[in-house]
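Let us work through a complete example step by step.
Step 1: write down the sequence.
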Amino acid sequence: MKILVEVVWFAEGAKARLYSVRLPEQTDSETARFFGRMLAHPRYQSDKRFGAALRTLLDWLDRIARLEGALLRFFRPGEGQGHALPIDKGPLRLYCYRFDDRTLLLCGGGIKSSQTVQESPDCLPHFRLMNYVVQALRRRHVGPERLPENATQAYSLEIDIPDDEYLN
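Step 2: predict the structure and record it as C-alpha cells.
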C-alpha cells in the first residue's frame, strides 16, 4: 500500500537539525511516540538498565544536535539503509537516517530482545518503516535542502509499505 508520511522538524542545535517521521492520522512523530511509549513502559520504573538506556538515547540526540553533529562514527553500520542509535549496548534502539553531518532523520524504535532486529518484534516494524522512508527519499533524490525549515512545516513523502507491516 502507498501511504503519505510527513517529515517534520524535531529539534535543532548548533551542530545539527533533527527531523522525524509522522504517520497519517497521527499528531505526534514516530520519535515522540517512541519516547512516550518507553517512558510509560513498566520497565522504565522497575529496571535501572532500561531507564539508563533511554537516558543514553536522549544524551546521544543532545550530543548530536548541540555538540558534534551527526558524524558517521555515531551510527551502527550494516542494519539496512537506516541506522540504529545508540552505538552503545543496551536494550533500546531508535532508528534513523543520516543525511549528512548536520541533518539526521529519526523514526521510531523499540526494545531489542535478541541479537538481530529481525528477531526483535518490538523493533522490527520501526526498522522496516525507517528503511521504506529511506528508500523513498533516495528514489526521489531528497536531500536536506528540501526538508522543513521550522516546526510549522512538513515535507510530504509517499512510501510503499506492505499492508501487513503498517504501524498505526
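Step 3: interpret the result. The chain is about 30% helix and 25% strand.
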